[in-house]
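Now for a concrete sample entry.
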Amino acid sequence: MKPLLWLAALLSFGALAARPVPDIALSKDDKGDWQLNYQLTAPAKQLRFARSPDHSRAARWQPLDPAFQIGQDQDGEYLARKDGQAFSSAAIRLTPTYIYLPKDYAPFSPFSDGGLALHSGRFFACVGLCEGDEHWNLSLAAPKGDHIVSRDGQGRQSLRWQDGGEGQVLYVGPLQPREGAELRALVDPGLPPALRQALDEALPRILAHYAKALGPARAKPMLIASFGRTMGGQYGNQGGVLANQISMHWYGNQLEKLLAKPEQISAFLWFFAHEGAHFYQGQAGQVRAQQDSWLHEGGAEWLAMDAIRSLYPERSAFTDQKLEDARSQCLAGLAQTGLEQAAQRGLFDLYYSCGLALYQRLAETGTDPVALWRRYKAAVAKGAEPGRQVWLAQLPPSQAKVLAALLAATPPEAAPAWRHWLGTAP
């Protein structure tokens, strides 16, 4: 074989061998129905989904061919034929309504005007278990009257792109992004006026505060804020950050009543500030080890508290109560489990409460959490892996040793050790 032909064949084989993933096509038709299509380059017996925080796909995804099914096992959810035969393509009708997924992004977040935001990572799938470094070719088509807004903020009726990692949020609907000095925004017109006003006024101030404290962002943030009414008395909100995108979703019929309470605006300011902190944590906040979630979640909680204290000192009673509650919840939880085992025990909130308490104690004993995060971010920017060891390395060795022991402590020693270190021991 000639050298150039041999090289071309080798490269072609390598590309195929490194890509055991399907092409993904998403589309919305004129009736508002959503369809998902997978197309494989070679037949396979299963497609395993990259993200399976629960087992909700079986109820919400309907294969158009009844020969297919959504199954689940110890490794998560998968798509397969019922007869076990290999397949090259599959089509699925999706349920485009909001659903809460444990510690994951919502697949769909409806807007009150008929638009919606979707999370591309929900549709990632692999032939075999995904390893986390795959890339997918995706396409998205919207009907006439709608357009697509991706992380670059450009509106169009169809889109093709390559995606990976945690994916991104895409908007499909009639809205156009609004450009501001601090951020680009897609804000649901159905949000109550008081909440829209709080977003418009507070979020740019909070982001500017973080830019000064932690250094400028590498990209202009894009806010995607949606609101969907639900049946019954359920109410809630959920946020997330993906690259330059800050997503916030509210659901329920009690929002207007809640906004009449003064403390609710303070709670929403905290919500804005927490998600804004994640944006400015950047790559340093992408901690893989779940047991180290205190690092970025607790960090976002402390940064939120610090931002509100700095920008809204009149709300100090709210932030003081949040801190007191966090300490109490942390110590109560550590009587049941060590912090490293909290997620396994279903006590993920301990990463927020204990993390906030930890950062505040550092501040009280002379370690500025903002300066600590700047050092940690700089280390990650130079190539260090985000996580506990790199974070601890930014502290004096004696202090790092004490914290490492606290983080590893288990009951019955955990709660007393933390109580002593936090300065709350009787």
Notes: Residues 1-18 have pLDDT under 50 and may be disordered. Residues 179-276 form one domain. The CA atoms of residues 176 and 186 lie 7 Å apart.
